[in-house]
Amino acid sequence: MRPIIDLTNGSPVFGYGLSLGAACGYGVGTYLALVSVRDYAPPLVASSYALFFGLIIMAGLFHRSAFSDVRLLPARGWVVVSLAGLAGAFGVVLLFWALTEAPVVVVSPITGINPLVAILLTHVFLQRFEHVTKRTIVGGILVVAGVALVAIGRS
């Protein structure tokens, strides 16, 4: 089965570039979330609008391939994609809410430990497809240590 949206060109460097773009998107998104909840709307309203307009923009950008690829998605795929959307939406709402309760310089690094959750879930559920190496674990520990230093430095 072919991927729903295939943006790969076969190079890991391309994947790293996409990851850097995602990091920039999340960083700008966090800043805009802070401005939204600080100046304009409560967290639930701001996050709902952010998700809605994100959907509209993505639909506009990828509508050609998205509509044709929807037919190729098996029933089990719909469940997994729906759960991913639910988890992502839950994360966005909690991020907006967290920004009303704590400084962005603390909230952003803490939400930045999400790769550790992905590493843990990969290790538990995807051992046949991806391997969690010692290097990955050390990197995860460094992320947690960095978050702890930021949190301690702000208290």
Task: Report on this structure.
The structure is a single chain. With about 160 residues, this protein is mainly α. The protein folds into 2 domains: about 10-100, no CATH class; about 115-155. Helices cover about 80% and strands about 0% of the residues. The protein is built from 6 helices and no strands. The protein has helices at about 10-40, 45-70, 75-100, 105-110, 115-125, 135-155.
The gross shape turns out to be globular
Query: Structural class of the secondary elements?
Result: mainly alpha
Kindly report how far apart the N and C termini lie.
51 Å
Number of helices: 6
What order do the SSEs take from the amino end to the carboxyl end, as H and E?
HHHHHH
- Biggest sheet layout: none
Percent of residues in β-strands? under 5%
The overall average pLDDT, rounded, is: 84
Number of domains: 2
